[in-house]
Specification:
The complex is a heterodimer of chains A (about 400) and B (about 290). By secondary structure, chain A is mainly alpha-helical. Chain A has a domain at about 65-330: ABC transporter involved in vitamin B12 uptake, BtuC, CATH 1.10.3470. Chain A has 17 helices and no strands. Chain A has helices spanning about 1-20, 20-50, 55-65, 70-95, 100-120, 125-150, 155-175, 210-230, 230-240, 245-250, 255-280, 290-300, 305-330, 335-350, 350-360, 365-375, 380-390. In chain A, helix 3 crosses helix 4 (about 70-95), helix 5 (about 100-120) packs antiparallel against helix 6 (about 125-150) and helix 8 runs antiparallel to helix 13. The radius of gyration of chain A is 22 Å and the shape is globular. Chain A starts with a helix and ends in a 7-residue tail after the last helix. Chain B has about 290 residues and is mainly alpha-helical. Chain B has one domain: ABC transporter involved in vitamin B12 uptake, BtuC (Orthogonal Bundle). Chain B has 12 helices and no strands. The relative contact order of chain B is 0.21. The chains are: A mainly alpha (about 400), B mainly alpha (about 290). The interface of A and B includes residues 99 and 161 of A.
C-alpha cells in the first residue's frame, strides 16, 4: 500500500521536475516557435493566392473556439486524433513508422460496428466489448506488418501504407450496396445503426463530444505509464534507441517490434471504434477525413510524448474545425488548415533551423517563450522540492 | 461468356501497352530512390514529390497553354522538393523518414488548397492539352539504361556508391560527401517530378488521388530490384502489369477488390518473393565531417 503511494509520489515529483527541467521548456519553446513560423508562411501563401488574411484567421478562431458548438467540434475532431497520434508515437518509440493508422482505424471501426449492431448485451458492457473488438481488429491489422518486419525484414513503412489501402478497399466492399454488411434501408455505403446499449453517451450536448474523449484520455495515461514507468516500456524505448544494443542487453527485440506495431494498431482501432460508438452510430464509408494521417502529424508535433499528443491533437482538431468555418465563410478553402499543418511539421522536425531563425531574428534562442513558461511554472517549485525530499528522483 | 472468352478479353495487346505505361512512373520513382538511397538519403517523400510534379505541370500547362513547359516546370518543382528534403536531412539533420512524411503531408494539403483556389474544384484541375505520354515512356527506358551504366561503370557512379557505403572513406578520398548527397537527392526529386508530370499527361488533368500510393510502390520496387536501375524497372513492370490487369478485371470482380490488388500484391511480393536486399551501409545516417 505505502509502496504504491511512494511510487505515485515519485512519478509526480519527476513529472514536475520534467516540466521545470530545461529540456521540456526548450522543446515547448521550439514547438510554439514552429507553429508561429508556420502561420507566418501560411500568411504568405494566403496573400499570394489573394485571400484576406485577417478574415481567414478570424474565421479559423471562430470555427475552433468561438462558442460551445465550435469547441465541441474541436474536441470531437481531436478525440480520434489523440488516439492515432498515440498510435504513431508508440511505434515511433520502438524505432518503427506506423503510417497505416488510417486503415487500422477502418478495420477497428467496422468490427466495432458489427459487434455493436449484432450482439445483445447490457449497457456499458456492450460498449466495452465493441470497443475492445474494434481495438483487437486494429491490433491484428498492425500485427501483420509487425510480423513481416520482425521475421522477414520487410520495410514496415511500405507495408503499413499498403495495408491501409487494402483496409479502406475491403471495408468499402463490405458496406457497398451488394456487400454483406450493407444497410438495405439506405442507398449510402454504410452498416446498420448500432444498438442503443453500445452507444457512448454524449457529455456536452448539443455537441457530439462523447465518452470517446475520456477513453482517449485514459489511453494517454496508460501509454505514458507503460512507456516511462514500466520495465517493458523501457525496453521498447531501448529498442528504438538502438536495436543492436537492446539485443545485446537481452531484450527480445523481434517480439518487441511485433508488439509495438500491434499496440499501434490497437490504438488506431480504438480510435475508429470510438467514431462509430460515439459520433456516427454506424460504420459509414469514408467516415474519417484523414484522422489517421493527422495522427502522424500529431505524433511528430508531440515529439513522440503521450501527453504532448493531447495538445497536438487539439491543435489539429482546432485546425480542422476552424478550416470548415473558413470555407463556410468564403474566406478561403478549408484546406489552408492542412497546409498549415504540413508547415508546422516541417519546422518542428528541424529544431536547429528554428533555433537559428530565432537567433537571426534577434532573440537568442526562443528565449521569450522560455521566460514566460518559467515564470508560469515557477509556482510549482516548492511542492516539487518537498516531494523530491520524500524520495522522488528525476528520471527523464 | 466462358472462362476462355474472359481470358481472351483480358489478355490482349492493350494489356501489354497499359503495362508499359503504368510501369513508367513507378520505374522513375524507383530509379530516383535508388540514386538517393545509394548516397545514404532515404526519401519517403517521393509520393508527395510526384503529386507536386503533377500539380505544377498541370498548373503551368493551364496558364501557359504549353504542356512541354508544364513538364519542365513539374520536373523542376520535384527538384525543389528534393532540395528541401536534402537541406532538412543534411543541413538540419532531421530524421530522413520524418522529413519525407512532412513533404507528403504538406503537398497533400497544398494540392487540395491550390486546386480549389485555381479551378474551384477540391482536388481536381480542368482538362488541358497534354503531351503524348508515350514520349515519357520512351524517355524512361533511355534514362534507366543510362543510369545503369552510370552507377556501375563510371567513376562518378563509383563515387556515389562509396558515399552511401562508407562516407568516411569517400571523404578521405577527396569526395565532397554532402555535395554528392545534395546532387542525387535533387535528382531523385526531379525524377519523381517527371513521374508526376507523366500522371498528369497520361490522364489529361490533375487529380489529388492520382498518384495513390504509387510513390510507396516505387520504393517497394527499388527494394525488390535490389537498388539497381534495371532491377527497379523489372519490379516496376511487374507492378505495372498488376495495375493494368486490375483495370481489365474491373467488369468481372467487385471494383474494390481490383483497386486493392496492386497494394495487396506489393505486400505479398515483399513478404514472400524476395530475400533481404543489399542495403547501403550508411543509409539514413547523418554524416558529420570530422
Amino acid at each position: 500500500m505505502s509502496a504504491g503511494r511512494g511510487r505515485i509520489r515519485e512519478s509526480l515529483a519527476s513529472s514536475i521536475q520534467y516540466v521545470r527541467g530545461s529540456t521540456f521548456l526548450k522543446e515547448t519553446a521550439i514547438t510554439l516557435t514552429s507553429i508561429l513560423l508556420a502561420f507566418g508562411i501560411g500568411c504568405i501563401i494566403l496573400w499570394a493566392a489573394g485571400y484576406s488574411i485577417p478574415a481567414v484567421f478570424l474565421n479559423l478562431w471562430k470555427g475552433a473556439f468561438g462558442g460551445r458548438l465550435a469547441i465541441g467540434q474541436t474536441l470531437t475532431k481531436a478525440t480520434p486524433i489523440i488516439l492515432t497520434s498515440l498510435s504513431f508515437l508508440f511505434a515511433f518509440r520502438s524505432g518503427l513508422f506506423n503510417i497505416g493508422a488510417e486503415g487500422q482505424m477502418y478495420i477497428g471501426a467496422i468490427t466495432a460496428a458489427v459487434v455493436a449492431a449484432q450482439l445483445q448485451l447490457p449497457i456499458v458492457l456492450h460498449t466495452i466489448v465493441a470497443l475492445l473488438a474494434g481495438g483487437m481488429a486494429g491490433a491484428f491489422w498492425g500485427w501483420i506488418p509487425g510480423y513481416l518486419k520482425a521475421k522477414r525484414g520487410v520495410n514496415e513503412f511500405v507495408t503499413t501504407m499498403m495495408l491501409s489501402y487494402v483496409a479502406i478497399g475491403l471495408t468499402d466492399y463490405l458496406v457497398a450496396p451488394r456487400g454483406p454488411l450493407h444497410d438495405p434501408k439506405y442507398q449510402a455505403n454504410q452498416t446498420a445503426r448500432i444498438a442503443l446499449t453500445a452507444q457512448y453517451s454524449r457529455i456536452m450536448p448539443p455537441t457530439q463530444v462523447s465518452w470517446a474523449i475520456v477513453v482517449a484520455g485514459i489511453a494517454v495515461v496508460v501509454v505514458w505509464y507503460y512507456l516511462f514507468r514500466t520495465r517493458s516500456g523501457y525496453e521498447l524505448r531501448a529498442v528504438g534507441q538502438s536495436l543492436t544494443a537492446a539485443e545485446y542487453g537481452g531484450v527480445r527485440t523481434k517480439r518487441k517490434l511485433i508488439f509495438a506495431l500491434s499496440v499501434a494498431g490497437l490504438l488506431a482501432g480504438i480510435a475508429g471504434a470510438g467514431e462509430v460508438l460515439g459520433t456516427h452510430f454506424r460504420f459509414v464509408d469514408g467516415f474519417s477525413p484523414g484522422y489517421g494521417w493527422d495522427g502522424i502529424a500529431g505524433g511528430l508535433i508531440a515529439r513522440a510524448h503521450p501527453v504532448g499528443a493531447i495538445f497536438a491533437a487539439l491543435l489539429m482538431g482546432a485546425l480542422r474545425a476552424g478550416g470548415m468555418q473558413v470555407q463556410r465563410s468564403g474566406a478561403a478553402p478549408a484546406d489552408i488548415a492542412a497546409v498549415l499543418q504540413g508547415l508546422v511539421i516541417f519546422f518542428i522536425i528541424a529544431p536547429s533551423l528554428v533555433r537559428q531563425l530565432a537567433r537571426k531574428a534577434g532573440v537568442s534562442g526562443p528565449q521569450w517563450i522560455r521566460h514566460v513558461l518559467r515564470s508560469a511554472c515557477g509556482r510549482a517549485r516548492s511542492p516539487a522540492r518537498r516531494l523530491r525530499d520524500g524520495g522522488g528522483r528525476p528520471t527523464e | 461468356m466462358n472462362i476462355w472468352g474472359i481470358l481472351a478479353d483480358i489478355f490482349t495487346v492493350h494489356l501489354l501497352l497499359a503495362t508499359l505505361r503504368l510501369a513508367t512512373p513507378i520505374a522513375l520513382i524507383a530509379l530516383g530512390e535508388t540514386f538517393s538511397e545509394r548516397v545514404g538519403i532515404i526519401n519517403v517523400g517521393v509520393e508527395g514529390t510526384a503529386v507536386l510534379g503533377g500539380l505544377v505541370s498541370a498548373l503551368v500547362a493551364y496558364f501557359t497553354g504549353s504542356p512541354l513547359v508544364g513538364l519542365v516546370a513539374g520536373v523542376l518543382s520535384g527538384g525543389l522538393a528534393g532540395a528541401l528534403h536534402a537541406l532538412w536531412c543534411i543541413r538540419f539533420r532531421a530524421n530522413h523518414v520524418v522529413s519525407g512524411i512532412g513533404i507528403n503531408i504538406l503537398v497533400a494539403g497544398l494540392a487540395l488548397f491550390i486546386t480549389t483556389a485555381v479551378w474551384g474544384w477540391r482536388g481536381t484541375s480542368s482538362y488541358s492539352d497534354t503531351l503524348n505520354s508515350w514520349y515519357i515512356v520512351g524517355a524512361m527506358f533511355a534514362i534507366i539504361a543510362v543510369s545503369q551504366v552510370f552507377i556501375f561503370h563510371t567513376k562518378w557512379g563509383l563515387r556515389l556508391r562509396v558515399v552511401g557505403e562508407k562516407p568516411e572513406a569517400a571523404d578521405t578520398a577527396g569526395i565532397n560527401v554532402h555535395r554528392t548527397q545534395y546532387v542525387y537527392t535533387i535528382l531523385n526529386g526531379m525524377l519523381c517530378g517527371l513521374a508526376g508530370a507523366f500522371f498528369f499527361n497520361n490522364v489529361g488533368r490533375f487529380t489529388s488521388g492520382m498518384v495513390g500510393g504509387r510513390g510507396f510502390i516505387g520504393i517497394a520496387a527499388m527494394v525488390i530490384g535490389n537498388y539497381t536501375p534495371v532491377g527497379g524497372l523489372g519490379a516496376a513492370l511487374l507492378f505495372g502489369f498488376i495495375d493494368a490487369l486490375q483495370m481489365r478485371l474491373q467488369p468481372y470482380i467487385p471494383s474494390q477488390f481490383s483497386i486493392m490488388l496492386p497494394y495487396l500484391i506489393t505486400v505479398l511480393v515483399l513478404a514472400f518473393l524476395i530475400k533481404r536486399a543489399q542495403v547501403p551501409a550508411a543509409l539514413g545516417k547523418h554524416y558529420i565531417k570530422q
